[in-house]
Each structure stands twice: as structure tokens, then as C-alpha cells.
């Protein structure tokens, strides 16, 4: 252990710390955009469900754009567009904005599916029992529909977390960018990419494991 | 406040090149999907039917493909393999990366499809004198392909969107070409806006084609 193997030259424990910090940044940008995006997505989903005509004509095509254009292009576009209208955004903020809208566009479909999975008869029953519209929405639709679409939502969360790697294009030093920086310095692409991959795997795998367990429990 | 002058002329001039690049995008996505479907089928079958190292190989492949960012996988094929002295061309990098990713995602879809087919059907086919290969290729796989038709369509859209990562490994598909022109003329926003529109059109064409194909395939 005293004599470092030649394979490890240039890579020291501090770099591991650097990568860990970058992983936290990945986690932070994902948590921020997923939280805001999910709330927005739920609202949009509810709007789409409630008013099929007005909001459907305006909102649905806009959200569709976020799903039909590569995230990479969206990021570059927004990052170059913001200064034109006088916004001075750093890479982190632009990343958060685009990732939020991207999440929202994905969650909208999930939320709408969740609301539609609750049978109309059940909602009518709850209204007949004297619940107001909002009580019905929060105490009947949310628990039942939410349970149905929870795995789909987890799928979106995992997708967004992985796609947050693209923010590195704007120069935000998250996990993948950090590994690139280290590769440039140490010339050890295989080792460092493996570590970065392990970090991503460690972030994502437990959640997907939990989701599949959850799904199995509710399938019974 | 808004003092940016749009210059669309250079974009217009290179528009034919961008359309050409759009075809390259479509081509690489289709190739990756074809490879992904074949490999994904094998992986799903290995995961269901095999024991020991083959099963673990399939499980590892699927979990890595699903739990790490596509960009990371591209970098791995691009730079990571360089450590072994394997230097792939950008085309090969993006093709292997996308196929690897698609195969992992599709394998899980196929697994769900295979599980939806009753085992009795295989037994019956074997009773009728088919061998295992015939039973799978003539009875099971056609049904599975029908079950996973819409997930495959979704995956195809994802493949088109993910092929935009080719820009980051130096492959000149639509995004790569766009970036090339953008850095030549410094008209980043205009070029990427046009690229976004082209991507949108490609995605719509893919979805429309798949709907037409579905109407043709699932008539009865």
C-alpha cells in the first residue's frame, strides 16, 4: 500500500473528494429542479385535465416542445437567449430553469394520468358525501391517483437526474464535468469515468430499487 | 432592453446542410434502435431464462444502462476505452453508446412483454412439434413486439433526442453540424433555434410514421 502503483499516478484521495462534491452539486441541481418542476407539472396536469379546450390549446403544445427538442439544444438555446432579454444568468440558474420546465413537461403527463386514473364515480361519491371540490382533489384524488402514478414519477425523477449531466455543457461543474476536468489533468479516463459512473449509479440505483419494490407491493 | 439583431441569412444559406444532418440524425437513431432491439431481446431472454454468469452479464448491462447518464456512457465508449488503446471513430462512439443505452431500456420493456405471455403457449408450441427457436420466433416474439410497440416508439423518440449528444463527442449529426456552423458564424441562437425546429419536425414525423405503421400492423 505504501508504494503507489503506477496506474494511480496523478490521482489522489483529494480528487475523490472533488468528485464527491461534484456529485452533491448534481444532486442539488436535480433536487431543486425536480421539486419545482413536479409542483408545476402537477398544476399543469390538473389544468389540462380540467379545461381541455382553452389550456389544452395553449399549454399542451408548449409542453410538447420541451419533450420533442433535445435537452442539450434547449439548454444551449436558453443560455444564449437569456442575455438577449437582459437576464444575467449563470450556468447553474439556466440549468435549473430548463431542467424545471423539462421536468414539468414530463410530470404533467404523469399527473394527468394520475387524475384520470381515479374513477369518476368515486369522485362523484366523495362529492355526494359533502366534500368540497378541493377536499375531493386533495383527500381522494391525490392519495389514490398518486399511488398509481408514483412509479412513473420516479421514472421521471431518475431521468431528470441523469439528464442533469447535460448542464455540464454550459460549464456548470457537476459530476460529469468534474470527471472531465480530472481526466484532463490525470490522463486516467477509465478510472475516473468508472468512479463517476459509480457515483451516478449510487445516486440512481437505490431509488429505482425502491420504486420497483413499491410497485411490487402495490401489484399484490 | 432588447437590442439583439437576429441574422437569419447565414442560417438560411446552410439550411440544406442542416436538413442533410437531420437525415444523419434519423439514420443514426434508426441504426441504434435496430441494434438496441436485437440486443435488448437477447438481454431480456438472458435475464429471464439463463442462470449464472450470462444472467449476471445481462443484469449488469441493463442496470448500468438504466442508472447512468447516456452522456456518461458515450464518454465511456469515447474516452474510457482509449485507455485500452481502442480508439473509436465518433460515428462508432455514438452508435455503440446509443445502442448500449437503448438495449438496456428496451430489455426491461421486453421483459415485461415476455412476462405477459403465458408459459402455456410455449408448452403448446413445443407439443405441436416446434423446437424452442421456432416457438420463440413464431409464437412468442411476435406477440411481445406487439405489446412493446408503443414503448419502442417512445424509445425511438428518445434515441433521436439523445443522438444530439453526438455534438459532444465530435460527431456531425444535426447538433454537431449546428454547433459547427454556430461557431463559424457566432450566430449561436439562430442556428440552435433552427435545429430545435428540425428536431421537433423529426420527432413528429417519427411519431406519425409509427402511428401509420400501427394502423397497418394492428388492423385486426
UniProtKB/TrEMBL annotation, chain A:
A Pfam family reported for this protein in Swiss-Prot or TrEMBL: BPD_transp_1
Annotated CDD domains: TM_PBP2
Keywords: Amino-acid transport, Cell membrane, Membrane, Transmembrane, Transmembrane helix, Transport
InterPro entries: AA_ABC_transptr_permease_3TM, ArtM/GltK/GlnP/TcyL/YhdX-like, MetI-like, MetI-like_sf
Domain annotation ABC transmembrane type-1: ranges: 23-211
Cellular component annotations (GO), alphabetically ordered: ATP-binding cassette (ABC) transporter complex
Signal peptide: none
PROSITE patterns tied to this protein: ABC_TM1
Transmembrane segments: 27-48, 55-79, 91-115, 136-161, 190-211
Gene Ontology MF terms: L-cystine transmembrane transporter activity
Keyword Lipid biosynthesis: no
Membrane topology classification: Multi-pass membrane protein
Family of the protein in this entry: Belongs to the binding-protein-dependent transport system permease family. HisMQ subfamily.
Entry-linked PANTHER family: L-CYSTINE TRANSPORT SYSTEM PERMEASE PROTEIN TCYL (PTHR30614:SF0), MEMBRANE COMPONENT OF AMINO ACID ABC TRANSPORTER (PTHR30614)
NCBIfam families, per the entry: HEQRo_perm_3TM
UniProt protein name: Amino acid ABC transporter permease
From TrEMBL, chain B:
PANTHER family per UniProt: L-CYSTINE TRANSPORT SYSTEM PERMEASE PROTEIN TCYL, MEMBRANE COMPONENT OF AMINO ACID ABC TRANSPORTER
Domain of life assignment: Bacteria
CDD domains tied to this protein: TM_PBP2
Transmembrane segments: 20-46, 191-214
PROSITE patterns named in the record: ABC_TM1 (PS50928)
Main localization of the protein described in the UniProt heading: membrane
Membrane-protein topology: Multi-pass membrane protein
Protein family: Belongs to the binding-protein-dependent transport system permease family. HisMQ subfamily.
Entry's Gene Ontology cellular component terms: ATP-binding cassette (ABC) transporter complex
Subcellular location as annotated: Cell inner membrane; Cell membrane
Protein name stated in the entry: Amino acid ABC transporter permease
Entries under InterPro entries matching the protein: AA_ABC_transptr_permease_3TM, ArtM/GltK/GlnP/TcyL/YhdX-like, MetI-like, MetI-like_sf
Source organism of this protein record: Marinomonas hwangdonensis
Domain ABC transmembrane type-1: 22-207
